[in-house]
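## retry 2 of 3
previous attempt timed out at serialization; input unchanged, resubmitting
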Amino acid sequence: MAEVNSSKILVISSYSPIKEEGNRVISSFITQLRTDARVKISVEYMDSESSSSFEDWSEWMRQLFDAYKTRPKVVVLMGNEAWSVYRVTCPDDWHDTPVVLGCVKGSFIDYECLNDLDLLTVREMQQMEESFGGFKVTGYAYKDYLSENFRLIKRLQPQVEHIAFCYDNRYNLSFFENYLKTLCEQTDSLGFCYLDGNKLSTTQLLDSISRMDDTYALLTAGWYTDALQYPHAHSKLHNELPHYTSIPLFQALDQGKANMNYIGGYYISGEEMGKDLATLTSSVLTKGIENSPVFQYTPSQPRYYINYPTFVAAGLDLSLLPEGTVFYNKAPSLWEEHSLEVVLLICLIILMIVIFIGVLLYRKRKEDAYRTANARMLELLSRMPDMATIYDSELNILDIINPQEHVLHGGNDKSMIGRNLLDVGEEYKAFDDMMDCLISNLRATIKTGEVRVFNYKYAKGDVIYYTKARVVPFGKDSIICFSHDVTPYVVAEKEILQLKTFLQSIMDNLPVGLFIKDVDDQFRYLFYNNKVSEFYEENFGVMLGKNDFEVNDPEAERFREEDLKVLESAEPITFDRIFYDPETGAPKRWGVTTKTRLEDQEGKLYIVATTVDTTEIRKNEQELNESKLKLEFTLEAAQIISWEYNVDARTFYSPNSTVFEETIIPLDDYLSFVFPEDTTLLSAGLEDLASGKTQVMDIQIRLITPALGERWFEMHAVPYGQGEDGRISKLIGLRTDITDQKMTNELIRLRDKAEEANRLKSAFLANMSHEIRTPLNAIVGFSNLIATTDDKEEIGEYVKIVETNNELLLQLISDILDLSKIEAGQLDFNYTDVDLSDVFNNLYQVYKCRVKDSVELLCRQPSPGYVIHSEKNRLTQVVSNFLSNACKYTSKGSIIMGYELQGDRLRFYVTDTGKGISGENMPHVFERFAKFDSFVQGTGLGLSICESIVQSLGGEIGAESELGRGSTFWFTIPYEPASK
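## retry succeeded, writing output
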């Protein structure tokens, strides 16, 4: 035994101790390693079956690392789950610790990114060696010998036609089913039934197994959890399985020898894998991982392991087992326990046989011939899947072989033997039709000697059973009736027909048109749905089985060219469809048809096409263009002259330039118009903005223009866009001609005010560049998406977003115009007699539909109401702004609107239970561009405009608020009753 000083081995198992009790890998590993080396071994169980969450595993692993203050000499990881977590959570000071992997496959699954994996086949999986990264890793992998187990099942049970594979599949590996199905089909074309633990509970699994007949074989790779995450799924399955079926349960890998449900399988035993890992770990401890074997498949070879008592109880033939089969749980033979007694007994029997051989020899020869023939016949009948009933010519039941309860209709075979079928029929009055069919066919065979095949059915409760029978002559005066239950096949055929009808209904009612052409049949139509007929406004019934030329379609030549183009392309191709008004010749409907080349497994080619009506999309595009024109008109009316500077190209762009004739001009050419004293100022300002040193450029420069001569200009700019590398790529700005301000000394007095206005413009530009760009980006972006998507529901959502941003943009421009009028002192006030009750009732009707579902809008007015002489539109504008803000920031509770007379003044208010305003922000509520929640749309101009309106009406405005409790916005105006 090798002595390894201060050596400690940490074994981390992905699984639970229950699984270890079955395969004994770790116990075998510990036993062998303690034989090879004197080390301390600690074993920890991660128990990944109890939770499939990678975060839970990671937390468990981190706690484990915290518990082991001294790192071990070697870490042994059992299972892919433990390795997947270890490589992510491993502390830095553990990275040099050698790692030995065991109980893993040759491929690696990264459970951290399991939801992002899109594996279609096993071959696409990452090799285990590719996951080692910077770790020192070796170990032994094992293979799944599924094909060998399929062949073993078929060899032992030739009647098996389907493999039912039972696997907990707790990580929902979708490609695994197709992989197993392919292996099954390669083994005598076996059918495959996947019992997926990610979809079935243990009870559902048992119910599914109970419905299987002897044409099914069960093979399992482990059932330690189920769709309900039941922690005792393994125990429940094996405790209840014998009560549900007698079908043997084969195992694809070693799951222990104590469970008598398992009949065996072809695999590498857990004891041998444990010994191999112990030998490798001993090598790492004594020689170092660099001098130890690299990661490879375990040296031990798979063998056939058979649970002898279960195998015998299943009635299987031992002679069919391959050479070298290992039996376990086999009781010692009589010879092994009582060899002497057996020898004496054999001698006694031989002596007795010698004494009586002369007497019995003649009789034995006669009986042997009969017995051999009878045994062969009974053996043949017993091995058949059908129940065989032997009748004499009077329909007396002579014998029943392979009795089947569902064919006997609940009767007892022993009580029926010796009775006449007519008498038995009297006891089954509920099955008169079945008995009449059976008796008539039996009598026909007795009379004619012909073989007859027929079917009959009977109802038992709400269930209908179907049986197929075959009657053949047997001997001189007897017949045999072979009966087989075909209920599963009949039910399956009906279900397939229902599914086919259901799928046909789905395709007929798809929201898009769908049609299919058979390329090999001269592009004739195989299928079309109702949407195709609606789109072309024709009855496509005449098209089925014909091509475009055969129905004299004027577009047939173009359609054929499209089809040929699609056949040459590996990708789908989209074609436009436009329908014109026959009277005006103008387009009236638009659509797109997407065609795809499809090739089936036999090499046949088809054209599969979808057709979508895009008329509404085109109409929406026209509406968007109209909105764009309105926006451009609004900007021009606001007297905003903009320019852009491309940092990378060093060019200026201005759509309404008055300085130069070209729309785009290089920077050097632009500087040639600037006074030499001001070129440095402009260049430096642009450079500071582009480099991020400043956020706003605000300068005054002189230019000599060909059309206007020498002029003074104020240049305002802010950064506008960024490139892929994060650098600023564009600047956007406003240009203002200030020559008149420079012409006289009188304007010097106004310069300070103009500078303040410039500062406000810079702030306005900084805010507006974002506020205008946000809805513009939404309008442009979702307009492009509308043109590229085919889903009507998705198009409707995009149009709604564009309309919302149109309204936001128009409101923004309206606020800008009001602000401009206020600055210019040109805000209109038209005084009339105003009925305040009408104003508040109208506002209540408008906003009661805008509040959120959990908010109640209340209106409180004095009775009787007041009629005053004031500006109705401006009063409505202020109260409406208060209500709009309350709706934005109130998600539950109530909003109260109202007014009251206080002395000689009228007080108007809106109170809400919304999020409120903090005390530090209250002094800035009525400032321009004041926004305290960047996630809520708005410009921050509304309350500032309201303040100006109220002041113009001779009133006061204010607000009270508490963060988290709500706000009250109010204003007062002088009470001036209306003239009578």
